[in-house]
Each structure stands twice: as C-alpha cells, then as structure tokens.
Amino acid sequence: MEALNPFDGALLIDKPAGPTSHDVVDALRAHLGLKKVGHAGTLDPNATGLLILLLGRGTKLSEKLMSSDKVYEGNLELGTETDSYDADGKVTQRNPVPELTLDQLNEAADSFLGDQMQMPPMVSAIKKGGVPLYKLARRGLEVEREPRLVHLYAFRFTDYIAPNGWFRVACTKGTYVRSLAFDLGRKLGCGAHLRHLRRVGSGMFEVADALEFESAIQQTPAELQTRVIPFLKLVRME
Description:
Blueprint: E1 9-15, H1 21-32, E2 37-39, E3 48-55, H2 62-66, E4 70-78, E5 80-82, E6 91-94, H3 102-110, E7 114-118, E8 127-128, E9 131-132, H4 133-138, E10 148-161, E11 164-171, H5 177-188, E12 192-202, E13 205-206, E14 211-212, H6 213-216, H7 221-225, E15 229-230, H8 231-236
Parallel strand pairs: 1-14, 3-12
Antiparallel strand pairs: 1-3, 1-15, 2-3, 4-11, 4-12, 5-6, 7-10, 8-9, 10-11, 12-13
C-alpha cells in the first residue's frame, strides 16, 4: 500500500449561507492543490453548519460517512407554503395560523418520531430519468416522486413566537428537513416552510469542532494540515 499523505482524511468545515457545498469543495481543492476533494453530505446553499470535506484517500470513505445520522437546528414559519418548502421558493399558499402553544407544537412534532415514508421536495438533487428534480422544477414541471423511508430519533421545538418555531431534529441520512417542515404545516392545517437550517452534527462529528469556511481559505496548507482528521482514524471510527 502506498504511503499515506498528511492530507488523506477529513476536514470539518462550518459552511456559511450562500455558497453551495460544491463551491466549498472547489475552493478548498484549489487552495490546497489537491486533486481529490469531496464531501460527506450536501447542504443546501442557504443552510449553514457542518460540512465534512474528504481529502485524498479520505474520499474512499464517502459512503461510510454519508450514512451517518444527522442533527439539525432550524426555524420554520407557519402559515406560508413555498414550492421549494423553504424560504428560497415561490410562495404558493398563505393561511391563517391557529393559536398554538409550544406544548401543542411539540405534540404535533412527536407524531413524526420513528420510521416514516417521506416525500422529497421537487426542488432537490434527486434524479428522475437522469435529470435532477430541481431542473424540472425550474421548467415549471412537477413529476411523481418515490417516498423514502427515514427515521426521526428526536424532533423538538425549543421556542415558538407565532408564526415562527425554533426546533432541533435528529434523523437518519436522506431526511429532508424542508419536507418535515412542509408535512408539519399540513398536519396543523395552515402550512409551513423552512426559514433557516443549520447542521450541528453528523455521526461522531460536531460543528463546534469545525473551522469556519472563510478562516479555512485564509490559512496556509500547513496550518490546515493540523486540522485534518487522519484517514486511519476515520477508518477505525464506528
């Protein structure tokens, strides 16, 4: 086996709102002068938080790390639905919001715990006939999607100031929190959309240990090398 490079492994980045996950990958690939850089799970452009970059041979562990459970914190707005299920989309419906307490909101959230079949949003990277759904959505098309089995370990609102609720959710990979916001809004009879989302955990990794993106691209490769989680350590992680 060829000797490992000091950059073979993973780098934890705290992604800001704006750039896509691929933008972050491309920037670090150029900055570090590496041929192979990937990530272990996409974040929407306006989502923030933990993005696990895989460097060199670390890209071989993509499937393993992508399968990890995720933890998110977010904010949703009741009474307004959008075509993308989040704040980036076009408003499709507005409804009056019923009077709700935090306890009532959490009672509704509890009904989503455990296994469930979740319908992915049209504005997503899932492909239909080889074409990403978001491209079809841009053409004004809506096609049939296959629901996916996901599991929610926890879904809890920490605060509610009508019409906005702040929550934390722990779930399996592939869970669309945008869809969760949409489904909760439908359950409450008023609709909802996701306003903000932040990934705070993925498997054993936490955003508290991540390096802010702007800081990362300002550091020298030698400085960033000290933040790389070695390939062999990743292999041994369960």
